[in-house]
Predict the structure.
Amino acid sequence: MTADLIGYNVGYLDEQTKRMIRRALLKAVAIPGFQVPFASREVPMPRGWGTGGVQVTAAIIGEQDVLKVIDQGADDTTNAVSIRNFFRSVAHVETTTRTDEATIIQTRHRIPETPLAEGQVIVYQVPMPEPLRFLEPRETETRRLHALEEYGLMFVKLYEDIARFGHIAKTYDYPVLVGGRYLMAPSPIPSFDNPKMHMNPALQLFGAGREKRIYAVPPFTSVESLGFEDFPFEPQRFDDPCAICGATGGYLDEVITDDAGGSMFVCSDTDHCERTAAAPNDTTSTATTSTTTRPNPATPNTKAIA
Amino acid sequence: MYVAVKGGERAIANAHALLAEQGRGHPHLPVVDPAQVEGQFGVLVSRVMTEGSLYDPELAARALLQAQGDVLEAVTLVRSYRTTLPRFGYTCAIDTSGLAPQRRISATFKDLPGGQQLGATFDYTHRLFSAAGAATPDRRVSDGVDGEDQAMPRVADLLGAGALIEPDAHPDQDATQPGDLTREPPVFPMSRAERLQALARGDEGFLLGLAYSSQRGFGNTHPFAGEVRVGEVEVEFDAPELGFGVPLGRIEITECQMVNQFTGSAETPAQFTRGYGLAFGRSERKVMSMSIVDRALRSAEFDERVVSPVQDEEFVISHSDNVQATGFVEHLKLPHYVDFQAELMLVRRLNEEFKESRA
């Protein structure tokens, strides 16, 4: 093996692998919320750093695509920069930071505040695809529980939270039921973002590289966050507006400003923050984020499997 | 300042430059050539090839240099390249009894057909620093025996002839269909072939610890090193349309057959059972650990009670891959401030509720 023989395919993955991943994606879309095992490949970044998301993106990206990559909601976090540069160099695609311009959005831990549109694809990086994993460590066992739609363990966990703390003590990776059938881990997005998944017009794909699972939520699929009649699901809320752009209704990061307990709250979604700050008089951008993406409790659970 | 994680484009470029600078060492010293690493760090190169699942000493050496000696980083480099290579087919099963071993030892028989051959080993060296700069090795003295011509049947096969040891391949094992975890999604429970592949790719240190735990009592393997051999073996590509194997070349491997006592069950008479280990290059510690863990993971076959971590397939296989392990542990360096913010709000709320309940 000599140096000049080393070359990589467009989009990094070889075509056989892309086909394999696309097959897994098709299966995932056909069975919303079901974890499809796939022969996850190594990619040139460490496991746990978005290798599943990278493989999914690599399998679906084409030259006409415009890619946005965010981590913690921000386009300029180091890992987002690194993954964006990776695709720019191996797939030769255009990249953007604007949510509304992107055809593919790869994300870690957030859903953008700007509502997604039909035709867009959001790719989530997933560390732990199995929502029952910390309740049952064995794959053989959790597979059976999913097959039998036996989700009592999770409800007991939520109930125990209520019994101990008076409310459900799960703030991110909050379990959801997809299409009224499969219990699904939404990846560690804050529960604040959960309502955005419900009946979302975009295609939502989830890649867990280390755990070798792919799953999906097709457009306009019901995604119901678990809860009880007397203790319904409550997404987190922020009382203060963003200290930079003044937007309300978005997810905020607390930035510590001194060593005397001082801190300020700023938008976690940098694209949203920049655009709101640039158009301070335009209230629509904040309005869209505050209410319209909330699920309508009256919306019936539509079975997406046709 | 952690907030500086934001605004990363220039930071990344600078970090890469600094990394390259640190890896260069003293600018007055010559740069190490990959061929030097390949020749003088052979054991390390073997490990990178084995855990990287790619037999290519030159590439492994380059990976080690690029990774500044970080083995797991080098393994990741090799694997990320390997996975992009198109798969044309499989090789025929290698014949390790046909290999001319440069080293072959058995701890179960004092003498055996083909004899014991110590070969290149650290085993009986005194771990004292040798004089610096003593680069020329001592001359070897001929022992008058020409081992090359002598047949060296595998020890396990010698025992097998008397039916004292289980057969090499299990009857329900399909030898024509090798498992391949890098192409097929792994699903538990695994076939032994898949498990062995996972162990071969598994972290040497992790397997060593597990093997050790089973020897110390967290497990019930009572192993004898039936045979450890190191040597070069011919690799043939299996071309179905030709009907015969096409020789590709030779690779150096290390093989271990661990022999374990088995007291028998209602269906099976008492006999010895096997654990198997195979790795690229010179990797004795790895193959010995691997063969002990392989045997421990066969509990179900022998109706043994699963009581220790080393016997638990999901536990061992899910956590043996160091590329996965190091990635996930180290990903904690990535920003988690969204989730942390969510937790912060929850803890504050719980805290306030606690104070209110005390008031």
